[in-house]
Amino acid sequence: MQRNRYSPEFKEQALGKARQRGDHTLHEVASELNMSVGTLKGWLKSSSRSDAPSTPLASLPCDLLARNWSPAQRLLALHESHALAGSALHAWCREKGLFEHQLKQWNETFCRTTMADPRESRESKTALRELQVKHEKLQRELRRKEKALAEAAALLVLQKKFQALLADED
Asked: Which of 26, 104, 130, 160 is at 20 to 30 A from 41, Cα to Cα?
């Protein structure tokens, strides 16, 4: 298998096309550039990783997936979109590569974490741990019962075969 060596200029041009592809998919951009989609995705991922520390927290990323945004960037997006509604909000979301439901979810998460009482979180963690222990106990019991059921089924099959053999001898 032959490895293609791409020049840095070609790589930058490909990254620029991929970031500003509009409604085209990465597959279309890669086939247009006559290169592998995996290579293009790898370049995008590595460039977003190398750009992430150098970008200030006060700016919204344009080439990073929304699920990879930091909490500070999410808060900034909530702040910028707070006064927008209707078509203005939709246009802003398209420009930033977001969906309206993501903003709503981030808002709910932010409000839930800031309004949460420390005692409630401690209690919820305790309750979650108790539920996990109970779940593990039930899983062990279920596995034990499944083994016993399989053993009983095997004994019944063997008993029927034995009876069939005895009936053939008579």
From this structure: 104
Q: Is-contact 89 81, C-beta < 8 A? A: yes
Within-domain flag for 120:
no
| DSSP per position, 94-133 | HHHT--HHHHHHHHHHHHHHHH--HHHHHHHHHHHHHHHH
CA nearest to 81, candidates 69, 71, 93: 93
Residues 111 and 139 reside in one and the same domain:
no
Determine the 3-state secondary structure of 56 from DSSP: coil
State pTM to two decimals. 0.33
- Model pLDDT for residues 58-110, shown as the tens digit of each residue: 566 666 676 667 777 777 887 888 777 788 888 877 777 788 888 888 788 88
84 and 45 share a domain? no
- Residue range(s) defining the domain that contains residue 9: 1-54
Question: What percent of the chain shows pLDDT beyond 90?
Answer: 22
Within a domain: 105: yes
Contacts of 107 (CB under 8 A, 6+ apart): 78
Dist. CA 45–CA 38, nearest whole Å: 10
